[in-house]
Here is the input.
Amino acid sequence: MGRVMIIGGGVAGCAAALAMDKAGHDVAVYEAHPDSGADIGAFLTLAGNGMFALTQLGAAEPVADLAFPLTSLRLTAATGEEVATAPLNPGADRLTRYQCLRRADLGRALRSTVAARGIPVHHGARLAAVDEAPGRVTARFGDGRTAEADLLVGADGLGSTVRPLLDPAVVAPRYVGQRVFYGYTTKAAPPTAPARIDMIRGSTAAFGYAVSPDGETYWFARVTDERLTEDEIAHGTPTGWRDQLVPLLRRDTTAAADIVAATDQLMVTNAHDLPDVPRWHTDRVLIIGDAAHAASPATGQGASMALEDAVVLAKSFRDTGSTTEALTTYERLRRPRVAANIAASAQLSTGPSRPGSPPVDEDELHRQLDWATPL
Ligand SMILES: Cc1cc2nc3c(=O)[nH]c(=O)nc-3n(C[C@H](O)[C@H](O)[C@H](O)COP(=O)(O)OP(=O)(O)OC[C@H]3O[C@@H](n4cnc5c(N)ncnc54)[C@H](O)[C@@H]3O)c2cc1C
Here is the structure.
């Protein structure tokens, strides 16, 4: 294949850079942000499958170093009664356990691994246009720069520039009917246990929290409501969001309202998904991660899907004979996997609205992600 240009230095972009570099390609990353990736300031959980993908890319250790592990989940009803507890990914080792970390720390760990491999990352490079010609692809950036490669990978997220260049008729991301609030606090003392994530099936919100080993509570609340306008998000304040959320959560006898009331750092975003992107690639341009297939946040799998994409993409190039075959193989393997996650997440957000795809067989997935095994 030769030269690979990756647009976007977020989760998918950094992981694809590591994977394609490992497969022997000459990789460069172009990121719009002047000094890091885009960061909405929230935290995320990385599931065992995402961590396993990171082990294959040699990036699990730096991520685990900045995260704290989650080994069990407790589900509570709106009354505060425990409904169930379950182990998370039992038998996993330190690097393949569920992990919880700030988004900025995940970006930092991935970018430092990319830098340590000597992969160039060009910051402040916002892609504006793509010219595809037989045998090569040229990217044009907003500041007038251009770059050429044999393959362009669009890893530029939900608001992708590459996606409509592949198909101008592609539909915009869909609001799934929920606002997601996030926060951190050291001033709350909710019921907890080491390495446990608590999920509360509240009457007004799906609420989740985990307490880090140094006593900081990380929490989120998914609330069904109208989509927030850009203006509301831009002008909202942490105090204002907290004043909206606490009375809703007070209707239940759970720890949720007290956690939020004790929080000063609070953020909100609309939850979107992107289930139906018909065209993922041309001869020399491909989209991956949220640019191709975003799920709403409910299953907490979007970043892990992006990490899986990266490994399967590089193996598709490694194990097939041509770019066409590699891109076809990649799409054949990834479509059912991401469709199942998008459907599961949408079901948790809005109730069943589309036929669920059958889940992908775990052994088969492990085989696809294991670098030592042919696809
Ligand atoms: C509220 C919320 C909570 C979530 N929680 C979880 C969770 O707990 N677990 C989980 O696994 N997932 C979670 N997700 C999903 C996860 O964040 C995404 O699936 C993941 O970030 C996708 O990675 P990506 O690299 O495809 O996109 P992004 O992370 O959005 O990265 C895209 C990158 O491309 C850059 N870029 C954009 N346009 C251009 C351009 N024109 N030129 C150059 N660069 C460009 C951006 O600056 C950015 O750095 C959550 C999402 C949300 C919204």
